[in-house]
Amino acid sequence: DAGVTQSPTHLIKTRGQQVTLRCSPKSGHDTVSWYQQALGQGPQFIFQYYEEEERQRGNFPDRFSGHQFPNYSSELNVNALLLGDSALYLCASSFAGGGGGYQPQHFGDGTRLSIL
Amino acid sequence: RKEVEQDPGPFNVPEGATVAFNCTYSNSASQSFFWYRQDCRKEPKLLMSVYSSGNEDGRFTAQLNRASQYISLLIRDSKLSDSATYLCVVNMGGNNDMRFGAGTRLTVKP
Questions:
Q1: Would strands B84-91 and B70-75 be described as parallel, antiparallel, or unpaired?
Q2: Can you give the pLDDT of all 116 residues of chain A as single tens digits?
């Protein structure tokens, strides 16, 4: 039973570039959430996708966008990269169970993004 | 006020000690609560859910106080392998919208 998988594991970009990170949820899960974790901080919620739509969004600018595909996998896109975007980007999946959803989330290993 | 607040620590304790972490949350409508453990440069992993009646899993005990809006984690008989950052997580609503605390760092020493 595959858990949450993310790619790539590491990425180096320069300011102004664009990046796409990918996530495949745990088998049986239909909801994907993305988090940004800076060094020494807890994960900060970016947004959540369910049924191919953005369902919730944290306090992140429009430079951060995403997508969910019919197979529940998801992408996180960040445009016009800034030095401050350097962080560990975590994907978490869960099963919404028909709308409520108080299930814990399961995390992937993350993508470590460095902006030079 | 932050949505989820934790004492960042660090907590440095000897093996065998009992240590407790507290976490407060701001949204009284929050429905579910969890403790996650995160090792250095690794992803968070679910340690335990927190139920209204309190729950125990081996050396770990979680408590919820809805009136005061805080949850706690108690670790008994600390092991070296318990050294990690412990993240308090609160579900802010019905759509599994999780909010994380900044984490409490625990180091267990021989």
A1: unpaired
A2: 579 999 999 999 999 999 999 999 999 999 999 999 998 889 999 999 999 999 889 899 999 999 999 999 999 999 999 999 999 999 999 887 644 446 788 999 999 999 99
Q: Which pair of tokens denotes residue B81?
A: 């392998």
Window 58-87 of A, Cβ < 8 Å to B: none
Q: Is A42–B91 a contact, with Cβ atoms under 8 angstroms apart?
A: no
Residues near A11 by beta carbon (within 8 Å), at least 6 away in sequence: A19, A21, A111, A112, A113, A114
Residue of B24, B27, B30, B43 for testing the chain A interface, max A β-carbons within 10 Å: B43
Kindly list the distances between the CA atom of residue B7 and the CA atoms of A73, B85, B104, B106, in Å, as whole numbers in the listed order.
35, 11, 6, 11
